[in-house]
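The methods section describes the discrete structure representation at length, but only in general terms. What matters is that the chain and its backbone geometry are given together, residue for residue. For illustration, here is how one protein appears when written out as sequence plus structure tokens:
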Amino acid sequence: MSSKGEFWCFLGIETSNLRMVFDGFFQYKDTYAYFLLDPGTDKAGTIDRLIHQMEHEIPSRNVCFIFYARVYELYGDDLVYLLRAKYPESKLICYYGDLVQRHIFKLSEASAAFDYLFTFDSMEAEKYRIKFLQEPLGNVDTAPREIKYDVVFVGEAKDRLELVMNIYERLKARGFSCKF
């Protein structure tokens, strides 16, 4: 897969964290664009608007489209077929930013639709024989920071409050600094 002369186009679902990821590529804006699709709108209308917007923003027919797997999950083969028809020289990539089994489509469906499959998870890459690629993050401050806690709980206890509190107590008893 050569990047010479190619234009890169990222397709994701509208979320603030994906916008942050894609904004990291702005230094390459002459060779890349991104489109974040709103999952709350009608599928056909979203695809039509996307194609119309692409006609104005993608300067080349030699495009490498990178789909986040959730885009394929929501828009399926309709979008894939349309892009292949409009950009026949293009390559399509599916990037699993979540575990393969957490998607509603089968890996075999993605393999048939895309030229390349990538995952963020090295063990899944080996297990499913797909390519491993850590997700690039832009605009993220990676400067070293003071470490205040050994363990931080991020989430909701839901119906597991007793279990979460049990884990917290066991960690504290073993000398861990926790923030729950």
